[in-house]
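Hey L., structure's done. Input below.
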Amino acid sequence: MESISTCAFCKIVAEAVAAATVWEDAATLVFLDHRPLFPGHCLVIPKMHYETLTDLPRDKVGPLFGIVQLIAAAVERATDSDGSLVAINNRVSQSVPHLHIHVVPRRKKDGLRGFFWPRQKYASVTDMEQVRDRIREAIALTEL
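Output:
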């Protein structure tokens, strides 16, 4: 786990590193990604350091995603796009270990191919049901 003092996004929150801030409130900061997929690509972060979505306290999920919803609508309007992609990486492919939600404007035929990885089929309905059942069991073991 990265230290808060070395976290690139915590440095942006502390204004030790510059960013193109789009919006903020007491708990949330939104800024343009410095390496966007397309112009208007924003990152929405909690100002408090949480590494992943699963680390974010449950009572903070709704308020954070209310901001994501606001930013998605604003990005679509501001860029005159056909829609948007909203995505989170948890650890794998997470370039900065601080929870961040990507809001990316999308246009039909913009070159992005659905998800960024090849899709796979389940070997059988039985395999699919076994995965489903394991997830259901994990949900039952997770504290709500």
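The longest strand covers residues 101-106. The chain has a mean pLDDT of 89.

-- N.
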